[in-house]
Amino acid sequence: MNGLKPSTRAKIGVWVRTVLVNLVAIVMAIPLYYIIINSFKSSMDMAVSPFGLPGEWSFDNYVDAFANLPIARSFLNSIIVTGVAVFFQLFIGSLAAYGMILRKSWFTAGVGAVLMIAFCIPLQATLIPQYRIEASLGLVNTLQGLILLYLVNSIFCYFLIVGYMRKLPMEVIEAARIDGAGPFRIYYTIVLPMCTPILATVVVFQTLSTWNDFLQPNVFLSSTDNRTIILQVFNSMSQFTTNWPAFMTITVIALVPVFIFFIFCQKWIVSGLVAGSVKG
Amino acid sequence: MPSQAREPKSRHSSTEGTPWFKTRGFAESASSTGFLVPILAVFIVLTLIPLIQTVYYSFTDYTGLNPNVNFVGLANYNKVFTDPSLLVGLGFTVLFAVATTLITTVLAIPLAVLLNTKFYGRSFARSLFFFLGVPSLIVLGMVWSFILSPLKTGAVNTVLVNLGLDSVPWLSDSTLARVCVIFVAIWAAVGWHATLYLAYLQAIPADLYEQAAVDGATGLQKFVHITLPQLIPGIVVSTFLLITNGLKVYDLPFGMTKGGPGYSTNTITQAIIVHGISQSQYGLGSALAVLFTLSCLIIVLGQTLITSALSRRFA
Asked: Which BP terms from GO are recorded (chain A) (predicted)?
């Protein structure tokens, strides 16, 4: 390559990278291809050629999946749990962040330290008593019980939001105060709108992690009607031990909303990834 | 909620002569406290009380079946370190955390560097690698259990047999199953962490590379002397996420193997759930949970120390 002009070398570099990276990307995507392609096959067809195109494209698996499983119900459960949980996480977290920036005292300093410690405690440490408490209150196998558990993530939301709120210009809050606005009104009409970028990031990030959660639905939900879509996919596996295409079909159905969400919110997932890097 | 409207004075005005509870300080303090009440309630109900109970259970023989609760000292902790099934789970969790952290980091940095250069299909490739980290790991794990099924009808085995090779017992052999679970974890995580590194790469000032080019630095020299040092904050963050998520792992091995064959891909979290909830051995499950929490806290502390040492060194 030494005899080549630098511009030619750069062009060759671009093509080498184009082939290399796209090749690796395509190889990495084979499992996604595998899921989609097999949802259109019969069991027989899938067993004979797992990676080949279907001999005959068939939508029977999709028809069967919607007929045999309460898919709409599971989606609804996931939407309710994720929507309500993320709303309250955001509300509690942003309220706490506002309380912290409003005033510095020994009390807020103490709360800050306590939340920092709480932030480092893994879910596993509290899981068994949480189960016992919810069982005694009749909250096991209810969506409310699951939502209640997810509120613990308000502490994570608080950490993301408070970092952003501390950088807000305090003069604006001070001016509103002089104009006679009460603390809650300042929070609602001034501070929250100014925090929109971080709130969007928190919503996108928490939506994804709540929607994808398997551990807590698996431990706390038992009846078919209460299952989230992820739990429904998991349970369908034992149902379809011999019918692999049926499992691939329900997987595709479960992944489509995640894929659409990803397409529209990729930007905020990245910012959440960078901002959420503090998560322990 | 007390209003401050009654005294529209400047912030530093004297409050002499007004009763203490009517001063702005009190009003602000009260409202500030009010805003913190919900999060404190969440903390007390969902973290503090359960945490105290976990520690308490871990020293008892509480099973839920027997109403009499007896203190048994460290017996549960003893059991953790003598039960082979738990030790295997502990060993696999540590192996998983360390292996995924090291290998993902080693692969994600060069991938991020590549994704940061010019080539055709760049935004497609970036999105695709990133997307693999987005779906739920239990679902991806189950899909991979079909791909790597040890049966002759498993996807990879079908290809091997068609090529005239023998089928491989991917998920039914202890060692192979572990390798496969770690491989899939890296497959899912590498693009996600490359995206994280990409954000840090894009923040490196271009003039550093221009100066190096003037000095005649080769590509490798630029990578070692500019890119890597500039990526240190990103490496700290990424490895921290990998190691803590690795220790907390549950979904992926459970989806792929349910912890098998035997206990070879069992994880601590799975053991806590099985013993502490499914089998109602609250004492044993809680002892596991306490040990697990302590090791997580030690890692957080160690990571904080390393981070501050590194930022002093490179600041």
From this structure: transmembrane transport
